[in-house]
């Protein structure tokens, strides 16, 4: 796929199905992540891959987080949070693995680098004709979930990437004028 097509046509896909991407495709996606900008070459990323029964295990972790946040959650909310991890054949948690008090690279740069790694992964999935969506929500900021995923110190979940075959049609992409976003100082 041409880079211009990739960059201007990437779209988030909420409905994903199919099989787990093959090993070569997954390696390509991870290698793309590892090319993200990385001030100080500290590689402030960690990835947790969930597929098969691992998605159900993640759903149970999300459930425990929900119950800690909202012990009165009704049955519909409980079922929804348990089932949300079954929306794609693959989920990758992208974590900013933060080196606290780094002499040259502040925490914000480390988190942004992990975000850039996530974006590279989404573009790589799209380049391999897969769909993806970057999800956050309460589960990305939940201390129970973060503890069970092994986050430490200032580590942060920057998102959960849901990856699979696109199911359904593409949503229309909005047109934007660069004039609405670009300020030029000449």
TrEMBL record:
<dbReference type="InterPro" id="IPR000415">
    <property type="entry name" value="Nitroreductase-like"/>
</dbReference>
<dbReference type="InterPro" id="IPR026021">
    <property type="entry name" value="YdjA-like"/>
</dbReference>
<dbReference type="InterPro" id="IPR029479">
    <property type="entry name" value="Nitroreductase"/>
</dbReference>
<dbReference type="InterPro" id="IPR052530">
    <property type="entry name" value="NAD(P)H_nitroreductase"/>
</dbReference>
<dbReference type="Pfam" id="PF00881">
    <property type="entry name" value="Nitroreductase"/>
</dbReference>
<comment type="similarity">
    <text>Belongs to the nitroreductase family.</text>
</comment>
<feature type="binding site">
    <location>
        <position position="35"/>
    </location>
    <ligand>
        <name>FMN</name>
    </ligand>
</feature>
<feature type="domain" description="Nitroreductase">
    <location>
        <begin position="9"/>
        <end position="164"/>
    </location>
</feature>
<keyword id="KW-0560">Oxidoreductase</keyword>
<keyword id="KW-0285">Flavoprotein</keyword>
<keyword id="KW-0521">NADP</keyword>
<feature type="binding site">
    <location>
        <position position="39"/>
    </location>
    <ligand>
        <name>FMN</name>
    </ligand>
</feature>
<protein>
    <recommendedName>
        <fullName>Putative NAD(P)H nitroreductase</fullName>
        <ecNumber>1.-.-.-</ecNumber>
    </recommendedName>
</protein>
<feature type="binding site" description="in other chain">
    <location>
        <begin position="10"/>
        <end position="12"/>
    </location>
    <ligand>
        <name>FMN</name>
    </ligand>
</feature>
<keyword id="KW-0288">FMN</keyword>
<keyword id="KW-0520">NAD</keyword>
<dbReference type="GO" id="GO:0016491">
    <property type="term" value="F:oxidoreductase activity"/>
</dbReference>
<feature type="binding site" description="in other chain">
    <location>
        <begin position="134"/>
        <end position="136"/>
    </location>
    <ligand>
        <name>FMN</name>
    </ligand>
</feature>
């Amino acid at each position: 796929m041409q880079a211009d097509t990739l960059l201007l046509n990437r779209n988030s896909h909420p409905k994903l199905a199919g099989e787990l991407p093959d090993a070569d495709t997954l390696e390509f996606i991870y290698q793309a992540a590892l090319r993200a900008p990385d001030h100080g070459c500290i590689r402030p990323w960690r990835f947790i891959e969930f597929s098969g029964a691992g998605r159900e295990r993640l759903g149970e972790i999300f459930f425990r987080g929900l119950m800690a946040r909202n012990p009165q959650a009704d049955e519909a909310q409980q079922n929804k949070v348990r089932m949300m991890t079954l929306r794609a054949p693959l989920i990758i948690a992208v974590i900013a693995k933060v080196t606290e008090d780094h002499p040259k690279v502040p925490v914000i740069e480390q988190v942004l680098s992990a975000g850039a790694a996530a974006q590279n992964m989404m573009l790589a999935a799209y380049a391999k004709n897969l769909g993806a969506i970057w999800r956050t929500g309460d589960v990305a900021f939940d201390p129970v979930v973060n503890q069970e995923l092994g986050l430490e110190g200032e580590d942060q979940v920057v998102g959960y990437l849901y990856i699979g075959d696109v199911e359904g049609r593409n949503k229309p992409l909005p047109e934007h004028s660069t004039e609405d976003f670009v300020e030029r100082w000449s």
